[in-house]
UniProtKB/TrEMBL annotation:
Catalysis performed (reactions): L-histidinol phosphate + 2-oxoglutarate = 3-(imidazol-4-yl)-2-oxopropyl phosphate + L-glutamate
Keywords attached to this entry: Amino-acid biosynthesis, Aminotransferase, Histidine biosynthesis, Pyridoxal phosphate, Transferase
Name the record gives this protein: Histidinol-phosphate aminotransferase
Native source species: Mesoflavibacter profundi
One GO MF term attached to the UniProt entry: histidinol-phosphate transaminase activity
Gene this chain is encoded by: hisC
Aminotransferase class I/classII large domain ranges (all copies): 48-345
């Protein structure tokens, strides 16, 4: 456990001194009361279901997540997709044109985009040939201006989870904040790192309703961290960043945990069937181990095979330009019918 970590040493001075905006619903929180007349927020008074501003702290959604994940609501922040959550992390802790972050290619491309948007340098340490973090290289790459380390586990596009011992070593010895992106954790055999928040004050875990929960269209990202980190991020988030319709849809979905779990198990089962079928495709050289809802494969000519699939009405992801992914295609696990069509097309091109 890191005993000397102090979040105040990492937060940007202007953010630490910032007085957050106080919205009307922050100042009067009982916005659901039918006994009150609300004339404080300059809203249209004619009721249509969405004429009022949404709960700025998304209390009902957080309460449900708290029960499901066994995490206090004080350790949860919600965003307009995980990308907003990640952007808030950059803006809270990284000084433009001064600080840097570390990413581990091949990985999720938005880390670099958000860093560039915020004028933050990116130091890269490629994964090893086994797609695992090179811990010593990462620790040796950090410097006095390194604020964040991004670990995507299970990783996109490689689909594998990082070894727990490697992550724990990084959490212990990295001088900044370690952000573990768990967008695909529901498809993994590994336990989420949210269970270790109390052990590592420099840990941020991000999750999403876009993948396992099938809610990509509502854009809801989740951040789990210490109360100190959540408090800092709350200071700079937009006051009504998660709209009312998103909150309503999220609650409806979170109430149906059995449906979600059934879909996850279906995807995992279909993933196994897909991998078995892919083994018979002669032009697929390697099928990489997966803990996600997709499979990365190495083929003879990724661009050619990608174009052939498009001609047959199937769109996959060509990852050949990513480090360590030359001639690799990424197949998302679809429905049974979609997977059967994919396999049929693969066998005939």
């Amino acid at each position: 456990m890191k005993t000397t970590f102090n979040i105040n040493n990492l937060v940007r001075p202007n953010i630490a001194a910032l007085k957050p905006y106080s919205s009307a619903r922050d100042e009067f929180k009982d916005a659901t009361s039918n006994q009150m007349i609300f004339l404080d927020a300059n809203e249209n008074p004619f009721e249509n279901g969405v004429n009022r501003y949404p709960d700025p702290q998304q209390k009902d959604v957080k309460s449900m997540l708290s029960n499901i994940k066994n995490i206090p609501t004080e350790n949860i922040l919600l965003g307009n997709g995980s990308d907003e959550v990640l952007d808030l992390i950059f803006r809270a802790f990284c000084e433009p044109n001064q600080d840097n972050v570390i990413t581990l290619p091949p990985t999720y491309g938005m880390y670099d985009v958000l860093a560039n948007t915020n004028a933050i340098d990116v130091l890269t340490v490629e994964l090893g040939a086994d797609f695992q973090p090179k811990v010593d290289d990462i620790l040796n790459t950090q410097n006095n201006n390194t604020k964040l380390l991004f670990l995507c586990s299970p990783n996109n596009p490689t689909a594998n989870s990082f070894e727990a011992s490697k992550i724990e070593k990084l959490l212990t010895d990295f001088k900044g904040i370690v952000v573990i992106d768990e967008a695909y954790i529901d498809f993994s055999e590994d336990e989420s790192w949210i269970s270790r928040l109390s052990d590592f004050p420099n840990l941020i875990v991000t999750q999403t309703l876009s993948k396992a929960y099938g809610m990509a269209g509502i854009r809801l990202g989740i951040c789990y961290a210490s109360t100190e980190i959540i408090s800092i991020l709350n200071k700079i988030k937009p006051p009504y960043n998660v709209n009312q319709l998103t909150q309503q849809k999220a609650i409806q979905r979170l109430e149906n945990q059995q449906d979600v779990q059934n879909e996850i198990q279906n995807i995992i089962s279909e993933r196994s069937l897909l991998i078995k079928a892919l083994k018979s495709i002669t032009w697929i050289d390697t099928i990489y181990s997966t803990q996600a809802n997709f499979v990365l494969v190495k083929v003879d000519n990724a661009t050619n095979r990608y174009n052939q699939l498009v001609e047959k009405g199937i769109v996959v992801r060509n990852r050949t330009n990513q480090p360590l992914c030359e001639n690799c295609l990424r197949f998302t696990v679809g429905t049974s019918d979609e997977n059967e069509k994919l396999i049929a097309v693969l066998n005939n091109i």
